[in-house]
Amino acid sequence: MPHLTLEYSANLNGRVDFETLCARVLDTILATGLFEVGAVRVRAIRCEAYAVADNLPENAFVDLSFRIGVGRSLDEKKRAGEQIFTVVAEELSELFKTPHFALSMEIREIDPDLSWKKNAIHPRLRQASA
């Protein structure tokens, strides 16, 4: 499991290619070598209702929440987080040219005793790589 969710303010519609961004993030996560292909999910969720800072209509945000399973060192988690954050910041670099954009990211480890999964993708990908 690594699941990365990008929540973003609706006023970024048409200004950001979220399909390309999700694909780049997926590639970056896989390039770390820390996660199995069949477990990775990247999704973007548009927030229709939001209020940012001084509530100017041009204020916008992207918030990244990266949920991962346990088993990686602090250095590995930091390295993965830095790589992902760098790629996203590069993709969104035009937005930083205005004083109305905020980007944030957090990594959360999932407690294995409180997480349930059923995945038909893993066996297919594991068989293909064998």
Description:
It is built from 3 helices and 4 strands. It is of the alpha/beta class and 130 residues long. Helix 1 (18-31) packs antiparallel against helix 2 (74-91).
Sum this structure up briefly:
This protein is of the alpha/beta class and 130 residues long. It has helices spanning 18-31, 74-91, 121-129, and strands at 2-9, 41-47, 60-69, 101-110.
Walk me through the topology.
Blueprint lengths: L1 E8 L8 H14 L9 E7 L12 E10 L4 H18 L9 E10 L10 H9 L1
Parallel strand pairs: 1-2, 3-4
Antiparallel strand pairs: 1-3
Helix pairs in contact: 1-2
> Given the structure, what is the number of helices?
3
Task: Determine the N-to-C terminus distance.
Answer: 21 Å
Shape: elongated
Q: Structural class given helices, strands, pairing? A: alpha/beta
Helix content: 25-40%
| Averaged pLDDT | 95
Strand order across the largest sheet: 2-1-3-4
- How would a crystallographer describe the biggest sheet? 4 strands, mixed
User: What portion of the residues fall into strands of 2 or more residues?
Assistant: 25-35%
Gyration radius, rounded: 16 Å
Order of helices and strands: EHEEHEH
Low-confidence stretches: none
Q: Tell me the number of strands.
A: 4
